[in-house]
Amino acid sequence: MASLSIKKSLLTILLACIVFATAPGNVMAQSVDSIVTPQFFDGIKNNAPATCAGKSFYTRDAFLSALSSFPNFGQLGSADDNKREIAAFFAQASHETGSFCYTEEIDKSNTYCQSSTEYPCAAGKSYYGRGPLQLSWNLNYGAAGKALGLDLLNNPETVSTDPVVSFKTALWYWMTAVRPVVGQGFGATTRAINGPVECDGKRPDLVQARANLYTSYCTQLGATGSRKNVQFEFGLHSTGSTEFHGL
């Protein structure tokens, strides 16, 4: 009788696990590399002109190599949450680089050097935007370099010449400055990346463009579970109350 009871208990547990795993929002999470397929990644690059330096620089292999240093990326919880974070990252990267066209900022006139004793600017070096999220300012180059074990203050150009390092800096910035606010919705990720330039009514067109990419990528990645609606507050009130799905 005890043996039969144990078998029944095990069967009950197994059935419960199956029900949980197949319930909406509880689908077993996929690995990031299975979500970011070659078709998805190359689909972004295909929107950039053939002459773009980034088309050969930014590769899925480089992204996946960099990802090994950030195993928590794309691991927010449910399968849909994970897909939404990945969609948000690539939406921001696509916008910042023109669909992976640019490896560095077009306008290089600003050195982006801020006085700092911890991360002082190196002589003759500029810290304009480079990489998928256009890492800018000596403070970010210094902090990213410290986290990655690289001297990016003296060698900032590495971010636009080494594709793995380039993606590592983008993932570092995302996990450090963006991940803490993803629960507030996609708009908060835009504020964390380029808020002073675009948010609070400064460039609603750019804010909208980022949101459009996010929505498109969510669809492409199959993020179909329930999402919380959040006010997309950053500069769109003048055209009415516009809502987008949060992360």
From TrEMBL:
Single GO BP term: cell wall macromolecule catabolic process
Superkingdom classification of source: Eukaryota
EC number: 3.2.1.14
Keywords noted in UniProt: Carbohydrate metabolism, Chitin degradation, Chitin-binding, Disulfide bond, Glycosidase, Hydrolase, Polysaccharide degradation, Signal
GO MF annotation list: chitin binding; endochitinase activity
The protein's enzyme class: hydrolase
Presence of the UniProt keyword Hydrolase in the record: yes
UniProt entry tagged with the keyword Disulfide bond: yes
A Pfam match: Glyco_hydro_19
Signal sequence range: 1-29
Reaction catalyzed: Random endo-hydrolysis of N-acetyl-beta-D-glucosaminide (1->4)-beta-linkages in chitin and chitodextrins
Ranges where the Glycoside hydrolase family 19 catalytic domain occurs: 52-74, 165-175
Name the UniProt record assigns to this protein: chitinase
UniProt lineage: Eukaryota, Viridiplantae, Streptophyta, Embryophyta, Tracheophyta
